[in-house]
Amino acid sequence: MSEETNDLGRILVVDDEAPIRDVLCEYFEGQGFGVEAACDGEAALSALGRYRPDLVLLDVRMPGIDGVEVLRRIRHADPKVPVIMVTANEDVALARETLTLGAFDYVSKPFDFSYLDRAVTAGLLQGGETAAAPAPASTDDPWPALVRTMFRATRGMAGRASTGTRMEAAALAAARLAASGQPTEASQYLGELALVLGIAVELGDLTGSDLAAVESALASARRALSAAG
User: Fold this and answer.
1) Domain that holds residue 97
2) Tens of pLDDT, residues 89-99
3) Which spans in the chain are helix H?
4) In Å, how far are 90, 127, 223 from 94, measured between CA atoms?
5) Domain end: 97, 125, 153, which one?
6) pLDDT per residue over 204-223, tens digit each?
7) 166 Cβ neighbours under 8 A, 6+ residues apart
């Protein structure tokens, strides 16, 4: 696989099943990422220092050093690189546990590529901050904080309800547009986020501390747009 540095970033794909590696590598190379593949935990840890990925897609169950142990070692070697766990449906509970070890997110096979796109974009945008090592609540840049908070909140929503999917997409779009100097368009997506958030609250999809965190992050993003204007 290509080891060239791409503007979109470098992804390390770790899976013991060749067809899965091939699908993920082909997909993300087609999106414009640099991609390196590793067939097991040993190869993944070797590639981590050599390839220096911006994000790792890591299979949970592999022979030899399994994904959970690889995650632990990655977190020790490079606490900042985002790691998204890849799991079969029957291992979702295990994948959720990896969030406490510092995984940024998890995706299930067969892949929902629309969600995978959002998770990878969010992982790259948030700059390696994880559930195990979150950034402080106050930050000079509210956009990574908005995306990070939104993805954390949707993890607690049953089956990542459709409202959660809409909010993730709106938060990512707003962050991208704000970063590219398009405040009016970014504001429109913040409006969409607020609208769907209201629906999620009405349906009981988002409550308590998760709701409070999203509302706070949304308010910070709006203040940033007002200041920029």
Assistant:
1) 10-125
2) 667 778 778 88
3) 18-31, 41-51, 67-77, 92-98, 113-125, 142-155, 162-179, 183-203, 208-228
4) 9, 24, 38
5) 125
6) 888 898 899 999 999 999 99
7) 192, 196
Residue 113 tokens read as: 């590529």
Query: Which tokens go with 13?
Result: 């794909």
- Say how far apart CA 124 and CA 11 lie, in whole Å: 10
**Which amino acid is residue 110, in one-letter code?**
P
Boundary-marking domain end, from 72, 97, 125? 125
Do 44 and 117 share a domain, yes or no?
A: yes
136 domain-assigned:
no
- Six token digits for residue 192: 């969409």
- Determine the straight-line distance between the first and last CA of the chain, rounded to whole angstroms: 44
C-alpha closest to that of 99 among 121, 82, 76, 78: 82
Q: How many domains does the chain have?
A: 2
Tell me which residue has tokens 């990655």.
74
Secondary structure, 3-state, 28-59: HHHHCCEEEEECCHHHHHHHHHHHCCCEEEEE
For the chain, the maximum distance between any two Cα atoms, rounded to a whole number of angstroms, is 54
Distance of CA 82 to the CA centre of its chain: 7
Give dist(CA 13, CA 153) in Å, integer: 26
In terms of average pLDDT, the best of 99-108, 138-147, 207-216 is: 207-216
Q: Around 159, how many Cα atoms within 13 Å sit in the side-chain half-sphere?
A: 2
Q: Measured at the alpha carbon of residue 78, what is the angle toward residues 22 and 176, in degrees to the nearest 5? A: 70
Amino acid letter, residue 90: E
CB 146 within 8 A of CB 174: yes
What is the distance between the alpha carbons of residues 60 and 115, in angstroms, rounded to a whole number?
A: 18
